[in-house]
Amino acid sequence: MLGATAAAVLALSGCSLFGGDDAVPVPNRTAAAAPDGWTDGTAEPVPTPTPTSVLPVGTVAAETDVVSKSGDTSLHVRVVQRAEGVFAAELSDYRTTNPQPMSIEFRHRTAHWGDGDGGVVRGSVAWDTGAGPPDSYTLDAGPRPDYLASVVLVPVAGVDPSEGFATERPWIGSVLAVGALDWNIPNPYPHLRVTVGEAGPGAYGTVQDVDGTPTWYRVSHGDELITVSKRFGVTPEQFEWMNPYLELTDDRWLAENDVLNVSPANR
Fold this sequence. Notes:
Blueprint: E1 9-10, E2 30-33, E3 39-44, E4 60-68, E5 73-81, E6 87-96, E7 102-107, E8 122-127, E9 136-139, E10 150-155, E11 177-180, E12 206-210, E13 213-218, H1 225-231, H2 236-242, E14 259-261
Antiparallel strand pairs: 1-8, 2-3, 4-5, 4-11, 5-6, 6-9, 7-8, 7-10, 10-11, 12-13, 13-14
Organism: Curtobacterium luteum
InterPro entries: LysM, LysM_dom_sf
Keywords: Signal
């Protein structure tokens, strides 16, 4: 059996979907108020918001055993709240009868044994045969990682040629072990409902239903976050919560032809 220890090779990774003519508000510099109520003309920058913890620091947000179909490989995983919106993955009790270069990945959807590429993953860390997984590492998944449904172990090619090439281990890249994630993070929008408004400047994209429920939005040229959010009757913060993989430009415009989620249940 191989114990969990030592250094690992970190490879941290990151739902974007479908974009306005309206100007996008930008932070303004404000004047500080003098004691007599007059402004003293000294401009101060608006502070940049910092992520806040959604759970008390030290709270376990999720815990699972990642186990292979045969039971010969397993790893215990805990996700713990750290300060300032950061979560850490704590790994322990790594056991395997087939030591080999391995990686751990957090995946968006439910994973199964034998699955291949999981698309965009979070918290990916790899280690060689002689090292084993790290005891803990920062989970690069944002301040609310409860959109992640599974954590998996995936054999990878080693940095040392003696570890064996892919032709010698044809299962490289396929999910060996799976653990389901049940999160202890409260839903910030338990009653969130989406309504579909008319298309217009800044929100000309198209909507696709799934079983009668508006689910996907394909971004049109010029769409931007504020206007698209208004079209669906939600705030920009709620829209971003529904799309944890969303990537925005500096001016908050959406990427043309991206397909975005507009169903809270589909987050």
